[in-house]
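To assess whether ligand presence alters the predicted conformation, the chain was also submitted together with S-adenosyl-L-homocysteine. Input:
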Amino acid sequence: MLKLGQGGKTMNFSLVSIALLYCCILILCLPGCAGEVNSNESRIQGENSNSGIEQFEVERQQMVEYQIRDRGIQDKRVLAAMSKVPRHQFVEPPWKDFAYSDRPLPIGYQQTISQPYIVAYMSETAEISPDAKVLEIGTGCGYQAAILGEIAKQVYSIEIIPELAERARQTLSQLGYENIEVKTGDGYQGWAEHAPYDAIIVTAAPEKIPQPLIDQLATNGKMVIPVGSWYQDIVVLTKTEDRIIKEKTIPVRFVPMRRKLLK
Ligand code: SAH
């Protein structure tokens, strides 16, 4: 046992004072530090910290104002959906802080989530009504599907990479979307079981428009699809009673549409 004389008591007292001082400093500093650390962590998890959630909310509203409304998107339901859907929940942790930036982002397996403006543009151009049944080809992370889920009655989405399809299913179900069904498969063939569709949105680019998708589009329905190889244009295809009208709109770069299930 340590025997402490007068000096020992003084040392003890000093130690206690120093310890107390440390405690005070820690108590004063921790909320600030914890706020930052937690805010980052909870931004990654998308829960717990109000400041993280609020920051994403602010960034989302700015995205809608400056990237979408300012560039001419007017459909109120599309704007409301883009303001509501938490895009940061659809991207992987390293990319969450960039979720609301004006660019596509990697989602793994060499695929990307489209730039916010393109998601809004395709959703508006498809002229989707609240009672519409919509088919999406290329679920990816499920973000475009969620936007469609907000503005349509029912969404069917097909993804060729099984891991992405599964991840999208999980994200969409965690966010409570019950009107979106995701299937793993080759979207080139469409999803005949639920056809006809009031709108079809394709987010992987084929070199020419797949005939099965034209067949599965309802009369007066619209398909919005990037067509081309290296560079593509978004083509808006309208099916009327007696003809198919195709209109080239904006130039884009999407990942190519694949034709086989990957191993
Ligand atoms: N809409 C997506 C982005 C899609 S990226 C989102 O919001 O995240 C294009 C996706 O199309 C990729 O995930 C790719 O795997 C998928 N894809 C490519 N070819 C396909 C095909 N033939 N059928 C279904 N999905 C396909």
